[in-house]
Amino acid sequence: MVNGLTLGSVYAIVALGYTMVYGIIQLINFAHGEVVMIGAMVAYSVIVVLTGANTGMPPLFIVLLGLLAAIPACMGVGYTLERVAYRPLRKAPRLAPLITAIGLSIILQHLALIIWSRNPLPYPQIIKTIPYHITSTPDGATITNVQVAIIVGSLAMMGGLLLLVYKTKLGVAMRATAQNQQVAGLMGIDINRVISLTFVIGAALGAVAGVMVGSYYGIAHYQMGFILGLKAFSAAVLGGIGNLAGAMLGGLLLGIIEALGAGYVGDLTNLSNLSDWSDALAQRCVSDPNLTLFGSNYQDVFAFLVLIAVLIFRPSGLLGERVSDRA
Amino acid sequence: MRNFFDTRRNPTLAWAGIVLVGATLLVLPFVLASAGTFWVRITNQAILYCFLALGLNIVVGFAGLLDLGYIAFYAVGAYVYALLASPHFNLHLPFWIILPMGAAVACLFGVLLGAPTLKLRGDYLAIVTLGFGEIIRIFLNNLSQPVNITNGPQGLYMIDPFRLGSFNFAQRETILGLDFSGPVKYYYFFLAALLAVIVINMRLQDSRIGRAWEAIREDEVAARAMGINTRNIKLLAFAMGASFGGIAGGMFAAVQGFISPESFILVESVMVLAMVVLGGMGNIWGVVLGAVLLSFVPELLREWVGPAQTALFGKMLIEPEVIRMLLFGLALVLMMLFRPAGILPSALRKRELEGVKT
Questions:
Q1: Is the reported ipTM for this assembly greater than 0.90?
Q2: Which residue from A25, B85, B161, B346 could staple onto B170, CB 3.0 to 4.6 Å apart?
Q3: Is the pTM of this model over 0.80?
């Protein structure tokens, strides 16, 4: 449950990146997962260099520095993405920007491969994880300080983003552009600037998410962005794409569904439970008690199943207001 | 292309061209074989990619439904063949029974994917199909327990080659004084099959169904208003595209003799999509051209880039595989930006993608 919550808040932040872009130009930023990956990678490099240099800085400070390096890098990537893949094609049919985005995400992945090698990089665990017990029983649920930091950090960012969108001038401009680009333009809003900024803000969130994922799983890989992006997208759809609060809710829900699903479905379909059915099964169980029908190997499937189910039964998502014709 | 092979307006030139191309295709394997059997294998793979690209073209090019999980059907076809013709279950059915079965199973999966996604358009569809492709792959990877069906990540091996009576496609033999190695035999079989598929595709495009697909692609609401049963026609596009993928998968399994989930990753789907996009969505010859280009160029790169780097810098700086992928991505982006309708655009697509209609 705590794992799910942590995972969920990361998904939520990545999903915010999708949903912001979608809300404003009705396009899915297919390369957003790669932005997250770049963020994790840049922070990785900074952290490794600083740790290796033995500067005597406190670990938390080093991670923050890594984060500070990752954010502008991702902002740059986000801006380039918008400039290259989306702006020239804003008037083109929807297939075109989708394909350029796929192309760019392949390019980003392999550039990262060239820079950071194809092997999974061990994320330096410089912050000691300290587990805290939530329940009074010693083998009950625990929460680590890293998890607390991730959850609190992402909640803070979500709050900040909501403030930005609903309380500032830029936020008004963004919402206006989302409603009607032409009219917003007539009202003196520089649409190109607003859209670029949306991409950049989304990318900055992605950078933070990248660092979080990296330090949570303790690993960074040039292909990590893809599956993460896909799940975050599912989260965004689950909550109602284009809706900020929806993305947060969807992210958290998806994280929890995934953690619980992988945990419990494995137990439920453990063959020992089914051994009454046939003698052959019972015999297999004796030799291999942990044999399951759908174990945690299928964790990744849950996100997709959720996505497909949502799209079939409630295409506008849990909190969505848009009609399904867009879909 | 069409002007060049226009048998009606310019018969002599057209027939000369057709004969020339035909003759080239006939002697090609022997020329390639002199450079190494490796190149014949690459050519066979290229023909399989043509198959896949043509199948995907039905879904993406004709009906305008972006499918990013197409490789799943290829996987289904390959696994059907491998399960029914390998020592794994000790089944050894002849290929002319399994290939249609593979097509049928793939078709079923196509409908399975198509049915829930009928209402979706554009990018949503792309993501759901992508997820579908991944689900299939994850299942193939994990269905080795509790009952060993797919043998998991190890894959299936010792898959039977095509056999007709005593004629074995995998054996080298001499016919009429010519040396036919295994890949060369497969080449002729594949070529014949490809020709059949191309003809089917051309006929499909001009048929009622083909025109219905085009209408749906252009404007679904208008198409429905015109009395087209959009649901069935879209399902048909998925089913047909999937069956071609299934057949190609079966052939792939037979030629390789070994398959594993590794062969059916997302990148492959993207690659097939790149072939369709590069060549020209909706244009059969364009798609074939795209498939041939994208199958051979990477191999040539592999041949040249590595040695060139060693010669220039004294060591391998960037693996050819990486360069290949980078070029892929670049090709996709540049094509969309500067020639969105592909190298050989289809007339309708061209009009649509160059922005007359937004």
A1: no
A2: B161
A3: no
